[in-house]
Structure formats: C-alpha cells, structure tokens
C-alpha cells in the first residue's frame, strides 16, 4: 500500500509543478460584459457584396451610433442605422423601405495597451437572445494588435444563445494593443425598418453564488407546489 501511495504521489507532484510553471508564465486576465468599462466604437465600411465588397474606409464612432447600447447590465447589438438619405447610403436614396447601400462592420470594444501583454486573456459572457436574420451576424472577439495596428492575432466566437468563453495568449510586448468586444456586420438600414431584422442581447455570466440562489429558489417553489397538492 505504501508503494502504491508513492507511485501515485510522484506524478501528482509533477503535475503541480508543471501547472505552477505555466501559471507564472501566462498570468490570467478574466474579462466580461461590464457596462462600466470604457467601451469604444469603430466602424469599417465596405461596398455591398453585389458591388464587389471592397473596403472603403473606417473611423471611430460613438457606441450608440454603431448601434450598441447598454440597458442596465444588458448590452443590445442591432443592425446599423444611418439617418442620411444620400444615395451613397441607400439604393435610390434613404427613406422607409430603402435598401442599405453599404456593408457596416460595427466594432464595440475595450482596449488596453501594456497591462494584458504576455498573458492569457479570457473573455466570457452570456447571450440571452440572438434574433438577427441573414445576412446580419455578430461575434465576440479578442484581438492582439501590433504597436502600429498593422496586423493582429484574433480569436472569436459566434453569438448564439447561452454562454461563450474565448481566450488568447497575447504577445509579451508592452507596446501592443489588446482589444476585446463584439463585431456586428450587415447592410445599413433605415431606422423604421430595423425591428424585423433582430438584435442580440448579452450580459455577464452570473456568479456561482447567484446561480446557487436561483437554484435554491426553484427548489423552494417545487416544494411549495408539492405541499399544496398533498
């Protein structure tokens, strides 16, 4: 029995040392959907696929203009709306029912330079609902940009109902920029026509204590119902 314990102890110690070494090499950064974070917006604009799909330009936008807005702890992402009736934005000119004339890549994100470099960055959240219709899509991402933003490493996940969690080992260069957030892509739409195209609702993953409380409440409700039927 003593020999068996010794044989089991050696590999366990070995694993502990290995994990300790990995932890010191890649510290953990845990990120989530926080309405109090310093969220930024950036819009990339493309021609429609039917017109070749070429990249046209990009610039910083306010997050409400993306459209990406918080209501309490819940973030809602929706197709981009442009109020300018110019034919640049809408086929034949803008107005109710007018088709959008550009593909909009709306990026809502938080950026950090220096603090998250050389670490394992994890971004998680809870998708409450995704009712976007084709061709609109929305993803969660982590990006690790070069100092001049000329290139980047990226991981992403589609926003489907339920929890998501993505992680990226960032490069140990304090001049690099790490971003996490969401990208929503699709044609711009006149504001009165946006409703049927759907949206995405996202929030932070509940803490285990909150989940336990909810589960306890559910058990209590079942017990009360069983008492009433006796």
Outline the fold blueprint.
Layout: H1 2-25, E1 28-31, E2 40-47, E3 55-60, E4 68-71, E5 74-77, E6 102-113, E7 120-130, E8 137-145, E9 152-158, E10 162-169, E11 177-187, E12 200-203, H2 208-228
Parallel strand pairs: 1-7
Antiparallel strand pairs: 2-3, 2-6, 4-5, 5-12, 6-11, 7-10, 7-12, 8-9, 8-11
General description of the model:
Strand 4 and strand 5 (74-77) form a beta hairpin. This protein has one domain (27-228). Strands 1, 4, 5, 7, 10 and 12 form a six-stranded mixed sheet that branches. Strands 3-2-6-11-8-9 form a six-stranded antiparallel sheet, with no helix packed on it. The protein has helices at residues 2-25, 208-228, and strands spanning 28-31, 40-47, 55-60, 68-71, 74-77, 102-113, 120-130, 137-145, 152-158, 162-169, 177-187, 200-203. It has 230 residues and is an alpha+beta fold. It is built from two helices and twelve strands, in the order αββββββββββββα.
């Amino acid at each position: 029995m003593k020999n068996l314990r010794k044989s089991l102890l050696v590999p366990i110690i070995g694993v502990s040392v290995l994990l300790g070494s990995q932890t010191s090499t890649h510290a953990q950064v845990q990120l989530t959907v926080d309405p109090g974070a310093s969220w930024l917006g950036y819009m990339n604009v493309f021609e429609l696929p039917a017109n070749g799909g070429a990249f046209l330009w990009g610039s910083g936008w306010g997050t409400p203009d993306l459209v990406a807005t918080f209501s309490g702890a819940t973030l809602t992402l929706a197709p981009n709306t442009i109020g300018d009736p110019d034919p640049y934005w809408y086929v034949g000119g803008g107005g109710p029912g007018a088709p959008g004339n550009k593909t909009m890549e709306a990026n809502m994100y938080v950026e950090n330079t220096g603090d998250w470099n050389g670490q394992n960055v994890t971004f998680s959240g809870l998708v409450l609902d995704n009712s976007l219709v084709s061709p609109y899509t929305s993803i969660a991402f982590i990006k690790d940009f070069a100092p001049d933003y000329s290139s980047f490493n990226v991981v992403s996940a589609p926003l489907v109902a339920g929890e998501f969690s993505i992680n990226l080992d960032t490069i140990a260069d304090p001049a690099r920029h790490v971003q996490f957030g969401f990208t929503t892509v699709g044609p711009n739409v006149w504001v009165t026509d946006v409703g049927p195209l759907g949206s995405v609702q996202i929030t932070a993953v509940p803490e285990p204590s909150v989940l336990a409380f909810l589960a306890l409440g559910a058990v209590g409700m079942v017990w009360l119902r069983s008492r009433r039927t006796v």
